[in-house]
Every structure is written in C-alpha cells, then in structure tokens.
Structure prediction request, 284 residues.
Amino acid sequence: MTTFGEPLSLPRHKVGPLTATWRILTALVEHRRQIFSVFWSDFNAPHRKNVLGAAWAYTMPLLPITAYVFVRSVIQDPNADADALHPAVFVVLGVMPWLLMRSAIMTPFEAINRYRTLVMNSTFPLIAAVVAGFGAVSLETLIRLIAGIVVVIALASASPLGVLAATGLLIAMSLFALSLGLFLVPAMVAVPDIRHILDIFFRYAIFFSGVIWSVPIISGSDLLYRLNPLAVFIGAFRDTLVGDTVAYPVVLFALLVATPVLFVFGARTLYATESQIKESLSRQ
Prediction:
C-alpha cells in the first residue's frame, strides 16, 4: 500500500524520519476538511438527543477536576508547606496537564480503533484519524485551561507572561505525550493487553506525579520526581503559571529538546507501520 506520493521502489520502512514526518504533515493538509468533518461529527453525535445538547461537551471535561478538588479537600497534602498554593489551585493546575498527557498517549490507539471502518475502507490515513481524535482532547484542554485561569485569578495570581509560558508548556507536553502514543500504536494494535497495562499505570502514577498531592520524598531523595517526565512537566506548568522558579530546569530543558526529536521518530514509526497496522485491524 503506497500513499502520500512516495516512490513505489522505496518501501516505507526505508524512509527517513524527516521525510516520513513531511509526508505525514502533507497528508494532514490534504485531508484537513475530512478531518474537521470527522471531528465535528464525533463532537456533536453523543449529545444530539440530550436536552442541553452540546452544552454537555463543555461541562463534562470539568467534572474530573471538581472530583479531584473534593478529594484533596478531604485528604490534606502531608508534604505541603504552610505557604503552599491553595488546594484548589494546586489540583486544577495538576489535573489539567495530567489529563492532557494521559489522553495524548492513549488517543492514537483509541482514535484508530474508533475510526477503523473509515481508515480500512478509504484513503483516510492513520495520522488523520489520530488528529481527528486529538481534536476532542484539545477542545477539552482549552475548556479546562479557561477554568484554570478563572481559579487562578480568584485564588492566586499569575502574570500574562506566565499564562503565555504555561500555554506553551501545555503544547510541548501534549506533543511529547502524543509522540509516545505514536510509538506505542503498533504494539497496542498487535497486543491489545498493553492498553490495559497503561490504564493500570495511569491509575497509580497519578499519585507520584504531583497531580493531587506533592510528589513524596522517599528516603530523603527526590529521584522519584526527576525520573518522572509527567511530574516534571506538571510541576513546571504549575510553577510557570503561579510560581517564581521552575523546580528542575535542566530536566525540563532536556525534555523540551527531546520532544521534537521524539515526535519525528514517532511519526516515522506510524508511517512505516501503517500497512501492518491496517492488516492487524482487519484480522481483529
């Protein structure tokens, strides 16, 4: 199967990362209208028969935040300082990037599964299905970001520059997580159990990523924090928005430098294995 105009004599697995990324981006431009149509239909379909219609799509993304704020109000943070952030601010600014990264990692596999009929019976490329699925994640994140800014204005303080920098970090961490998701798609399609393993991982990792409570210091070491990219991104997002300094600037800088490289190789992985992924889907 050859698309995106690649030479017939050059198998996909021999295409370099930059070329594969360019062809994937070109495919997105070519299918932009179909991607938007699929996203818009997917966005409206679940709420068409509800009285409030699409209003549910704007309120449901906020429910996880309110639930975690309630949990934090009941169970106090044992590691919090006396002058720490208001619990609601801490939780909102932790849950928002957490849900974004979790969804970005899982979206490539879930979107391809959701639109499998479309990708199997048309020239709709896998990356187009991924972007259509990620559109809903982006919209939910925007809704949470607006709610987060309101909470920060009410209970803390943030400069316009801090808001701009934090928004840039959200984009970077979403690209980082999406790249991981692109790498995992072939394995998740071949072995669906990986999906459940990741679910279990995220259920426990939330307690060690500074989302609801501070990352615990074990045996006097913060190694658990520095080795957890999710925690570093979340902490940097929170610090950038309402703090003075970022806790681990060197680790954050390394992650930001690695992100575009990771994306290029993740895109190449999806591009090179597209035919195999579709064959696996046809057998399921």
